[in-house]
Amino acid sequence: MIEPESTAADIGVDHVVDDVIMRSREWFRRAQFEGGFWWAELESNATMDAEYVLLMHFLGKRDHAIWAGVAQDIRSYQRADGSWALYEGAPGDLSTTIECYFALKLTGDSGPHLERARDFILARGGVAKARVFTRVWLALCGEWSWHDLPAMPLELMLLPARAPISIYRFASWARATIVPLLILMNDRPVRPVPRSASLADLRASGPVPMEPRDRIDRVFFAIDAVLHQYHRLPWHPFRSRARKAAERWVLEHQEADGSWGGIQPPWVYSLMALSALGYAVDHPVMRKGIEGMHDRWMVRRPDGSVRIQACLSPVWDTALSLVSLLESGVEPGDPNVQGAARWLLEEEVRVPGDWRVWVPDVEPSGWSFEFENDLYPDIDDTALVLIGLHKAGALGEACRARAVAWMLAMQSDSGGWAAFDKNNTSRLPALIPFADFGEMIDPPSADVTAHVLEMLGELGFDRSHPAIEKALHYLYEQQEPEGSWFGRWGVNHIYGVGAVLPALAAVGEPIDNVCMRRAVRWLVERQNRDGGFGEGCESYVDVKARGRGPSTPSQTGWALLALCAAGRARSQAARRAVGYLLDTQREDGSWDEDAFTGCGFPGYAVGQQRGARIRQGRELSSGFMLRYHLYRNCFPLLALGRYRKALGGKGGIA
Predict the structure, then answer these.
(1) Are 20 and 60 part of one and the same domain?
(2) Which of 374, 380, 381, 436 is labelled catalytic?
(3) What integer pLDDT is reported at residue 214 of this predicted model?
(4) For this structure, is 462 an active site residue?
(5) Nearest 5°: phi and psi at 589?
(6) What is the pLDDT of residue 469?
(7) Could you tell me the residue range of the domain that residue 301 belongs to?
(8) How many whole angstroms separate alpha carbon 405 and alpha carbon 398?
(9) What is the pTM of this model?
(10) N or C: which end of the chain has fewer CB within 10 A?
């Protein structure tokens, strides 16, 4: 057995924790915005930059200054082999590289770095091997044939919600993206690029057909062929009605900040769909969408680079910061705490959204992830916000009753909770030939369910409540044989364990039960030599990578939260984890972390592990990974605060 390296934990951790917590608190006080919220960058990958350039080309809105800054950011993500990847440390991704190469050519860029990108693309089969969504972008710009894309009939808009395939069988993010895509794939608009930006040099072959693996795949591929023939018919009796329904849906789903769904994909496709329908760029809806994208969604850096975010996370950032401060010993009456609580109370969603299709008989409530997203409040944010408001003494009875009732109504039949919808579990959307970009549905997950369970425990509910009994049954069923839980929205099994064990403790489950012991053993076996914990995004596709990777502050925080919840705060593993956090804190009270430890949605390869069919012939997405720039500071403070409490301390170590 390798002896652990000496850390601060081995030389008297109890004398250092208070100072580390105090420095972290001060960092948060300085970082809070005047309105009471916290908000940090939500980093994804260069695809967001590239698709912004392609969008503005399609709309005829070229801005040389912005394009130059975006091009600079795209180049900053390029690898030595010429490729671009989906997250830090990932292998080069063909589709991402094609989009970045195309965008740079559109901005007028040239040089050896583009030659390396072209070599990478050609070596992997060229544009024919790209995912469907990348080839849609190419078709919009005249660089791919619409006829060589899977069919998506516009008449899908007319199917009732409970039909086997309808827009409401897709996850919220997929639904909001598919509706405008139905318009684009019906109208098939083309906005050609200059000859200098042509991708003729990337055509290593013609269209590459996907190969069905079984009878179900063959059925769907046959349906796709029929739909292509249907599109070529001169008469479509329901097409006009469906087109108007899709247009109306898009218009009704624009948010106050100009976005759609609070995320990038439906935003860009909705703007292009409306443009295809004849909406000019100076139309109020279009102007609102374009100006909104140029507002908070762009990160403008001192070096002149411009980064486009996939989403904004102020509600999640604020709730997480608020809970972290309160758990670290900050009093509920503190001005920073009360400022955050007031801001969060104002952000409650009080209008019905798409969730109402499946849950019609409950009063609207909940919190969304972003500044503006009234149609898609999410269960994860709502759970964390309620914990924060409760601990801050700011959760009024009416708000509490309304929000809890909404949360309980959103529980799926399995006992778990998903992010946005109830019982969104049909596997049919993943089988259509169009679906190769990632998860198409929003099934319950262990991490979201755990956060709801922890919230209910904080509010005084216990196992006698039927919803908690069902949720516990779901979580125990979801535990992996080796002891961990799959973390859908965080990387990955460390995130799952860090969410579930505090939830079990919050509702009074015995800390020495078999479930907790297995999870603790799994964690301890994966602790790194430096005392920290880490897990790479590759664990979504590689079982052996679960819980393995270089230590990070956020993931060490998750592990420490789990150990404290399981009654192991005085264990060597916990003290070593604390030592890692103490040793790595910066003088300004923050921590450094370059790793991507968040997940926008898992990719198709995760579905493969859980039973989905993978079609041969082209690249498939491995997920949309995120780097929350606030995670590196929130989770260490939260974990150290709970560690101190577990040892009997309040304002200091007991």
Answers:
(1) no
(2) 380
(3) 56
(4) no
(5) 95, 0
(6) 97
(7) 46-197+206-308
(8) 11
(9) 0.93
(10) N
